Amino acid sequence: MPHDLILGTAGHIDHGKTSLVKALTGIDCDRLPEEKARGITVDIGFASLVLGNRTLGIVDVPGHERFVKNMLAGATGIDLAMLVVAADDSVMPQTREHLAILKLLGIRRGVIALTKSDLVDGVTREVVELEIRELVKGSFLEAAKIVPVSSRTGQGIDDLKSALLAVLESESDREEFDSFRLAIDRSFVVQGHGTVVTGSVASGSVRIGDAIEWHKGDGTSEIVRVRGLNHHGTVVEALRRGQRAAINLAGVPHEFVHRGQELAAPGSLSPSRVLTVRVTALAEANRPLKHRLPVRLHIGTAEVMATLSLLDADRVLPDRWALAQLSLDRPATSVWGQPFVLRDSSAEMTIGGGQVLQPTAKKLRRRHLESIVRVEQLWNEDPAARVAAAAWLAGLEGASSAELMVSAGISGAPSNELIGQLAARGTLAVLKLSVNQHVYLQAERVTELDGQILAALGALHADNPLATAHDRVRLIAHLSYLAKEAVLQAAVDRLLREKKLVGDAKRIARADFKPKLSTNQRKLKDKIVEAIREGGFQPPEPAAFANQAGGNASSLNEIFEVACAEGLLVRVTSELYLAAETEAAMRERVRELLRRSSGATVGEIRDLLGTTRKFAVPLCEYLDRVKLTKRMGDVRMLAEPIERASAPDRS
Ligand SMILES: Nc1nc2c(ncn2[C@@H]2O[C@H](COP(=O)(O)OP(=O)(O)OP(=O)(O)O)[C@@H](O)[C@H]2O)c(=O)[nH]1
Ligand SMILES: [Mg+2]
Questions:
Q1: DSSP string for 220-234
Q2: Which residues pair with 45 in a beta bridge?
Q3: What mean pLDDT, rounded, does the chain reach?
């Protein structure tokens, strides 16, 4: 089945747009009492026309200069344009403005209807045709047919249908991978059904029963259910891109629904108050776009006040392009590549427009060359270049492959292949966060992250030259301002694999860190540790090693410090060190004893450890200090709570 498409009218007030839609379809799009009374179109109207095997949805827009905002809401979802010019009036201001808007919105095909042909002679008609040709030169309508018609006599209406059919048939049917999205252009209540919203399906498809996300235009959203669907007055099961849709939403109060809000597949859109864009100034407006200019942003069916911030220029001259950010008064939803239109703050004229490069952006520093270059790359024709730029812009946190595809405006199947190629080329590095979670970092970002980790560890080494390794958890907590813990952990693992770090899950050191002790000092340290270990609870005191140390006697203190920093020895007093295992065994035995008894004296602990009073006193004081025990008069009791569950049941 060929896809349906949506056609929008365009043109100056009173040039016969609505009359032409009626002549084509039999449908009168002007339904509002105000429209009937004034004989002009105020808001968008809808009709449909079956041509060949497709249904053409038609959006009829107002030509009045005061209702350009409504024209914009209608034009946002269209595929084809029908530019209407009255033969007795020729090209007028809104003919130009509407055409400019269609160009900014990226419309690629259409026809031109020369209406009211019954009112002019052949010569006038030819002159007007020349003026139209001049107008559309260089635009998507350059080669479009100009069809003379009269809605009054019916002349040319069949020719116009043929011209439309030819355009329709030249549209290739593309595979649709994108998720559902519709910008709301109207909402009303149907008795017995509740709230109905309408719009042009911009991408994807929707079925009855679907859960979809209703973006309310204030940054909040809600998941709602599709209760019913209607297509040009007919109840349907599903609707897809290129079709007009009326959607009955379950449980949505009508008063909260309005134009400018969006419906989308859950999770597919994120509202943002900052957009990064490429922007151009309209030659027709005849005024440059300046840095800090307040503007009216029209995106989708939404209209939001915003401030333009030019990233690498002070002004954009007509028909030139620049990179910019828009700071919005309230959040808007958009996707990569989405066209938008800018009007001046008093809504008198269209002044420019462009495309979104970052739908959710952080504020970028002005004239910051590095980021400007990357942002520019987001518009590169080559998808791989866009992905690389998106990865750089994702910073030290990186991004999942799905996030990169969204940021680079790539939809559909080829994504994994592309990411794979970039990883193979070394442009991207993958960090494994968990069994099925990966993030990709751009190569320079990996270098930056590695640099930060190595520098932080280097600083720790410099502050503690005696310690050969540092606590991994503490280092990562210290760097938490850079990226999520999982990303940092994965980066450390990668550095360990690359042998830039040494260590394990607990303690790490830079591979290039030179410990403070010489080889001889380290040998001595090993001997000391061994002797103290063998000494158990009656170890030799440091001074006992003075003879053995010979020339190293003066560094005995340092050697003990290093052994402690390395977790080999535990300092009890300056005269008494225990091997780490001995200290652990002591804790274990004392804990065991005190669990069974109501308290123990120094003498009892001395016997327990098989040592002498000389050692038992400082050891008991040590146990108090580390809060294993507490002293109550002459006895010591456990300071820590007894784990009841593990205690044997003695009742
Ligand atoms: N003689 C003649 N009059 C026409 C023709 N088409 C439209 N008109 C008249 O021109 C007037 C304006 O027509 P509309 O169709 O309302 O014009 P429009 O472009 O929709 O106007 P807006 O929506 O307000 O911009 C009406 O009085 C029509 O009857 C035509 O082909 N021949
Ligand atoms: Mg009209």
A1: -EEEEEEEEEEETTE
A2: 60
A3: 92
pLDDT at 438 exceeding the cut of 80 = yes
What does each C-alpha distance from 536 to 330, 511, 577, 604, 607 come to in angstroms? 71, 34, 10, 17, 14
Question: Cα-atom radius of gyration of the chain, to the nearest Å?
Answer: 38
Give the residue whose CA is nearest to atom 6 of ligand 1.
16
Q: Looking at the CA of 10, which ligand is closest?
A: 1
Distance CA 192, CA 205 (A): 26
For residue 90, pLDDT over 90 is answered with yes
Residue 341 · residue 353 · CB < 8 Å: yes
C-beta separation of 128 from 85 below 8 A: yes
- For β-strands 146-148 and 109-115, DSSP reports them as parallel
Measured torsion, CA atoms of residues 479, 480, 481, 483, in degrees rounded to the nearest 10: 100
- Which sign, positive or negative, has the C-alpha torsion 303, 305, 309, 315? positive
pLDDT at 286: 80
How many Cα neighbours within 13 Å face the side chain of 235?
6
88-92, 315-319, 463-467: least confidently modelled range = 463-467
DSSP-derived letter for residue 597 is S
Summarised one tens digit per residue, pLDDT across range 531-581 is 999 999 999 999 999 888 777 777 888 889 888 887 899 999 999 999 999
Please tell me whether residue 515 adopts helix, strand or coil conformation. Answer: coil
Among the listed residues 129, 139, 75, the one whose alpha carbon sits nearest the alpha carbon of residue 282? 139
Residue nearest to atom 10 of ligand 1 (CA): 16
Q: Phi and psi (nearest 5°) for 405?
A: -65, -45
Ligand nearest the Cα atom of residue 63: 1
Read off the pLDDT of each residue in 504-531 and give the average, rounded to a whole number.
88
Separation of alpha carbons 60 and 47, rounded Å = 8
Q: Is the CB of 386 under 6 A from ligand 1?
A: no
C-alpha closest to that of 325 among 381, 393, 259: 393
Pairing of strands 238-240, 205-207: antiparallel
Report the C-alpha gap between 469 and 475 in whole angstroms.
11
Residue 651: pLDDT band by 50, 70, 90 thresholds? very low
Helices (H) and strands (E) in the chain, counts: 19, 33
In a 13 Å sphere around the CA of 313, the CA atoms on its Cβ side amount to 18
Identify the sign of the CA torsion 42, 44, 47, 51: positive
> Which residue's alpha carbon is at the smallest distance from atom 21 of ligand 1?
14
Q: For 550, what's the count of Cα atoms within 13 Å in the CB-facing half-sphere?
A: 6
Query: Residues within 5 Å of ion ligand 2 by Cβ?
Result: 17-18, 41
Does the CB atom of residue 479 touch ligand 1 within 6 A?
A: no
CB 100 within 8 A of CB 284: yes
Distances (CA, A) of 15 to 11, 40, 105: 7, 10, 22
pTM, whole model, 2 decimals? 0.80
Pocket lining: 9 vs ligand 1, CB cutoff 6 Å: no
Q: Cα separation of 543 and 556, whole Å?
A: 9
Collect all residues with Cβ–Cβ distance below 8 Å to 124 and sequence separation of at least 6: 87, 88
Measured CA to CA, the distance from residue 261 to residue 275 in angstroms comes to 17
Mean pLDDT for the stretch of residues 260-277: 96
Output the residue whose Cα is nearest ligand 1's atom 13.
Answer: 16
411 CB near ligand 1 (under 6 Å): no
